[in-house]
Design brief:
Elements (H helix, E strand, L loop, with lengths): L1 H21 L33
Keywords: Membrane, Transmembrane, Transmembrane helix
């Protein structure tokens, strides 16, 4: 548990703080009131073989 705590506080926490200071948001969580929708179109796969190879 000690090693995980060290990694968390000395590696992940500074990375997160730097990302917040720069304003980088990889998940794009900002709310935009001017947009009409947040729907993102998905690509459909019409190939029947893809159903047999799901992974």
């Amino acid at each position: 548990h000690l090693i995980l705590a060290i990694v968390y506080y000395f590696v992940l926490t500074p990375i997160g703080l730097c990302m917040r200071l720069v304003g980088y948001d990889p998940m794009n969580r900002r709310f935009d009131r001017n947009t009409q929708t947040y729907w993102t179109p998905s690509e459909t796969n019409n190939d029947i073989k893809a159903y047999f190879r799901q992974f």
